[in-house]
Every structure is written in C-alpha cells, then in structure tokens.
Design a protein that fits this description.
CATH topology: Deoxyribonuclease I, Chain A
Distance between the termini: 11 Å
Largest sheet: 6 strands, mixed
Oligomer: single chain
Order of helices and strands: EEEHEHEEEE
Shape: globular
Number of strands: 8
Radius of gyration: 17 Å
Strand content: 25-35%
CATH superfamily: Endonuclease/exonuclease/phosphatase
Strand order of the largest sheet: 1-2-3-4-6-5
Helix content: 10-25%
Number of helices: 2
C-alpha cells in the first residue's frame, strides 16, 4: 500500500533452496522467498521502493546471495535511481543469533548501499501470541538505501493500548529526507534532487 501511485511494479523470486515446499514440518507453506517493489514518483523525482523477506532457514551466505541477486536486478532495471529496500532480512538466524555475523551488510555497502537499523542494541522481535521461542530476542528488520538520506530510524513497540503484543516484530520507521543518484545500485545518472515522499516508510 502507498499514498502515491505505484509504477513499474515487480516481483522477484529470490535465489536458494525452496525450503517452504514442506509437508507438515515446522511451518508448511506453498511458496518461496521474494521481493516486491515499484517506482514512486515524488516531487523530486522517481524513487524505487522494495520490500523483501530473506531466508531464515539458511546461513549467512544464503542471505547474502539473495541480497546480491536483488541488487543486481535493481541495477539492471533501475540503474541510477535512488532505492530503499526494507524488510525482515532474518539476520542472525542459523549463525548463532548475532546480526553482526551477517555477510550481506558488507556486500550491500560494497554495492553503494547504507545500512539503517536504528540503535544497535535495540532488537526488533518480541514475545507475542505466535512466538515459538519467547526467550529469543533478535534484530531482523532493516532499511538498506542507495542514493537516499534517511532521518533517524525509530523502532516502535508492537503493543496495543493495553500493552498486549500485536505482532512478533516491532515497527521500524524512518523519515526520508533526500534522494540523489544511486552510484552503484539500482535510469538516469543525471537525477539528483531533493525528494519529498510520504512522511514515513515502514
């Protein structure tokens, strides 16, 4: 959903084993990991916005490969446009729980992206009615930006007015301040202007 019209919408199936074609084990589903996105026309020019959910049932190398494929696709189809990628990157899963051990961050930075996750010590998961591991506290949710300046990232507790959890993930938000050229990421290198977008991307 978006306040502005969505142009050139796309769906990208991410690489890796199809873990979720399972029969009765863990979280049986019919599907696979993917990214969806579109171009939003702001007052300052076009902005590519992407939502994704990387694999939890893999090690760091698998998630890094998925992110690399996503950035390659953005670079091919939206070269030079500013990009915001947001989502559950499943950082820390199957590598001991520490997001700092993920290789996808260094890959993103090498491709011209900045990493935004709010305060380093603030996790983004919480116990909820659907949490299978209530004692596990992880930092899974991030923004990756190229050619975009964000204001401070906020992590808002997913609690209702009575303090009950409404999700097992907290809300991560950021103010989009400015868009410029994305040097290595994702048509025209001449695009460089202030970008007035909706107040928050979440």
């Amino acid at each position: 959903m978006a306040r502005a019209g969505l142009e050139r919408p796309f769906l990208l199936r991410l690489s890796g084993p199809r873990h979720w074609f399972l029969n009765g084990e863990d979280q049986p589903r019919l599907g696979e990991r993917m990214a969806i996105g579109a171009v939003i026309q702001t007052k300052g020019g076009p902005l590519v916005v992407v939502s994704t959910h990387l694999e939890s049932v893999s090690a760091a190398a698998g998630r890094s490969l998925q992110l690399a494929g996503l950035i390659d696709a953005l670079d091919t189809n939206f070269h030079g446009l500013p990009v915001v990628i947001g989502g559950d990157l499943n950082t820390g899963n199957h590598i001991g729980g520490d997001f700092r051990d993920e290789t996808l961050f260094s890959h993103a930075i090498a491709r011209g992206f900045a990493v935004h996750g709010g305060p380093e010590t603030t996790m983004t998961t919480r116990p909820s009615l659907i949490t299978r591991w209530p004692d596990r506290d992880m930092k899974l949710d991030w923004f990756l930006t190229c050619g975009v300046t964000l204001g401070p990232v906020q992590i808002i507790p997913a609690l209702d007015a009575d303090g009950h959890p409404v999700s097992d993930h907290d809300l991560i938000t950021a103010q989009l301040v400015r868009c410029d050229v994305c040097p290595k990421g994702a048509v025209s290198p001449s695009h460089a202007s202030a970008c007035s977008a909706p107040p928050a991307i979440a």
